[in-house]
Design goal:
By secondary structure, the chain is mainly beta. It has 4 domains: 5-23 and 471-571, Immunoglobulin-like (Sandwich); 27-54 and 380-468, Jelly Rolls (Sandwich); 67-376, YVTN repeat-like/Quinoprotein amine dehydrogenase (Methylamine Dehydrogenase, Chain H), CATH 2.130.10; 577-660, Immunoglobulin-like (Sandwich). Helix content is 2%, strand content 55%. The strands form 12 sheets. Strands 1, 2, 3, 4, 33, 34, 35, 36, 37, 38, 39 and 40 form a 12-stranded antiparallel beta sheet that branches. Strands 43, 44, 46, 47 and 48 form a 5-stranded antiparallel beta sheet that branches. A hairpin with a 3-residue loop joins strand 31 (358-365) and strand 32 (369-377). The radius of gyration is 43 Å and the shape is elongated.
């Protein structure tokens, strides 16, 4: 780029001004911790809060013909699933999904093994407990009186305990006789979870969220109260009890939801609005996992970074949880670290199951699916969200830091989301190690993907350098105002820079229509106002040229400048001349000025109020104007004095006294 001559002359002087780092220096997007990497697609990846991304085990997806999976039960190699919103019971065995029963209510909320290959199923909306045997034969096992929802089931010997709502009651059902009786009452509205801890029955409730211990019939005491709305599930590891606690929306409104004609996410599973949350009621609120140790100490283990939690599992001292939005499974520990293990296409992870080798099954909603966790690492690819800049950007070096083989590609475009107008994926150019130059063309938006292409590969840090193309400043107007009292001209202008660069200004003037601009200063001016004292400017019409440049923030090769010329303004310090004579009752005269047009002539007789004279040609619009005025008849008698005042358009006034009479 060739700079305007005035900027070239002022370049050295501009170095005296403070330089800021805006468009002149490259910027960098950095992915270095779990919060950074969450700004991307983590499909097939495990994310550690400090160690970065690694390949996650391979997932095998089994589609379930339901909107979401609410509960599940493992019986050997067989999985039982309770779903909604069309309440159904499914069996998964040897990778085959079989629908075993459909209920009248919107949801099967709880399951318990019958010890013979079948299950008991608690139904929301009807107050029924069903029994389905291994062959799929279904019967109503018992219908509880004055109960709408069966939220939880726990089999102990020949007694099946049921947590219900509303009313927050726990019933004991004799399996042999199929008779039910009230076992315990709580102060809560709903009993959502039941767990046998080896000595007593534990219950988790909603409104309020409590952990209760029932030592015997109608013997209830509280072990803990939690902030939030519901205790969604209970699990234990040794003598430590873990409670999933949610705030905001709860599981209870599921009882009043209506089935939809078509479940979301059928066919190819998608995750609309991934990483942006969801407006769905089930995803609102916050989730946390609390624990109560044998000594009665209650402490929080995990806060979900992705909203509400459903079922959780425990691996040693770590808690595995699935979040209600984002489709992620996380692993939390007592230190507060949260590691992302899986990121699936469905929006909701409603539960996880662990085995001897760790997480073995995932259960989802929107839509319902079962993911079987394999042992062999899958091919892992990390793709960033669309990274956007404010203007057209040159993409620079990309540094991928980690272990093993990391293959980096980029693509760019001008829309919020990639489409057919974007450039294709291209590998880096001039790769050295894991780093190289992006080959994507300049644009407003960029995406980067990194393939972990070898066993044990790990991505720990990603840096993406970029340079926004410098844009010219905006100079919208120039104002000039004459200060008559001071004899100065006040200049002001409006300028801004869309890149946030520091601006400098070159201010020049010339006689209107002149060929040469004259400088008013010898270095870049850093203000938007200037006062001219035109003592060295002969009377006449002038123009001012203001040039705005972002040179202080950019090198001379990339600096941009824009100029604007003001409206002409007048410098006129001379008074107009006037001559006049009186003939009879009329005064005739001529007013002249070297520069300005004559604008008016005032005539006063003997100090009386002045009267405006008329231009002979009808309009005061020339630098020389003949004027006349008929005087009052009284001037024909005695001696009088006329005072003539002539004003030009610069406001200068010339005066003349004319005696009249003998």
């Amino acid at each position: 780029m060739t700079l305007p001559p005035i900027l070239t002359r002022l370049l050295l002087a501009s170095a005296l001004l403070g330089a800021s780092a805006h468009a002149s220096q490259p910027s960098v997007w950095q992915f270095a911790d779990d919060a950074d990497f969450r700004r991307g697609n983590l499909d097939g990846l495990a994310l550690h809060p400090t160690l970065g991304l690694t390949a996650a085990p391979k997932l095998t997806r089994l589609d379930i013909d339901a909107e979401f999976i609410h509960c599940w039960l493992r019986d050997g190699n067989r999985l039982w699933l309770g779903t909604g919103l069309n309440g159904k019971l499914f069996k998964v065995e040897n990778g085959i999904v079989t629908e075993m029963a459909k209920v009248d209510g919107p949801l099967i909320a709880s399951l318990a093994s019958d010890g013979k290959g079948g299950v008991y199923a608690g139904v929301v909306g009807t107050g029924e407990i069903l029994h389905v045997d291994a062959a799929g034969k279904r019967e109503t096992f018992v219908k509880l009186t004055d109960v709408q929802h069966i939220w939880a089931l726990q089999l102990r010997g020949q007694v099946l305990y049921a947590g219900t709502g509303p009313g927050g009651k726990i019933f004991a059902v004799d399996v042999a006789t199929k008779t039910a009786k009230l076992f315990a009452e709580t102060t809560a509205d709903h009993v959502l979870a039941l767990l046998w801890d080896g000595e007593a029955l534990l219950a988790g409730t909603s409104d309020p969220p409590l952990l209760l211990r029932i030592d015997g019939e109608k013997s209830v005491r509280a072990l803990a109260a939690f902030p939030g709305v519901e205790v969604r599930s209970l699990t234990r590891s040794g003598k430590t009890i873990f409670a999933t606690v949610n705030g905001g929306q709860t599981a209870v409104p599921l009882a009043s939801l209506k089935p939809t004609p078509e479940r979301p996410g059928t066919g190819t599973a998608t995750k609309p609005g991934a990483n942006k949350g969801t407006k769905d009621a089930a995803a609102k609120g916050k989730g946390a996992v609390w624990k109560r140790t044998a000594d009665g100490i209650v402490s929080r283990v995990l806060v979900s970074p992705e909203g509400m939690l459903s079922e959780v599992a425990v691996i040693g001292k770590q808690v595995v949880a699935g979040a209600a939005r984002g489709g992620r499974v996380v692993l939390g520990d007592e230190m507060g670290d949260v590691q992302s293990l899986f990121d699936v296409k469905e929006e909701e992870i409603l539960g996880v199951e662990v085995g001897a080798k760790g997480v073995q099954t995932l259960f989802t909603g929107k839509s319902a699916a079962v993911y079987l966790v394999g042992e062999q690492p899958a091919e892992a690819v990390f793709t960033t969200d669309v990274l956007q800049e404010t203007g057209t950007t040159q993409w620079g070096r990309i540094d991928a830091v980690g272990e093993g083989t990391l293959e980096v590609e980029t693509r760019s475009g001008f829309s919020d989301q990639p489409n057919d107008t974007w450039s294709p994926w291209q590998p880096l150019r001039g790769v050295q190690g894991q780093s190289g130059q992006s080959q994507s063309p300049p644009a407003n938006a960029l995406q980067v993907r990194v393939k972990l292409a070898s066993a044990g590969a790990r991505l720990q840090e990603l840096k993406i350098f970029r340079q926004v193309a410098n844009r010219a400043p905006l100079l919208t107007k120039i104002d000039s105002t004459l200060n008559k009292a001071k004899g100065t001209v006040a200049l002001s202008w409006t300028a801004e820079d869309v890149d946030g660069d520091t601006l400098g200004y070159v201010v020049q003037y010339r006689p209107r229509g002149g060929a040469q601009w004259l400088s008013l200063h010898d270095r870049l001016f850093d203000k938007k106002t200037m006062e001219l004292s035109p003592t060295d400017m002969p009377d006449g019409w002038y123009e001012v040229r203001v040039e705005a440049t972002d040179l202080p923030s950019n090198g001379p090769r990339t600096a941009k400048a824009v100029a604007r010329i003001s409206k002409p303004f007048l410098v006129d310090r001379g008074r107009p001349d006037v001559i006049a004579e009186v003939k009879g009752r009329s005064v005739h005269g001529m007013a002249t000025d070297a520069i300005s047009r004559i604008t008016r002539v005032d005539i006063s007789v003997d100090g009386e109020p002045a009267v405006l004279a008329a231009a002979v040609d009808g309009v005061f619009d020339q630098t020389s104007e003949a004027f006349e005025l008929d005087l009052p008849e009284s001037v024909l008698k005695g001696s009088h004095t006329l005072l003539l005042q002539v004003t030009d358009e610069a406001g200068n006034t010339g005066a003349l006294r004319v005696p009249v009479g003998p």
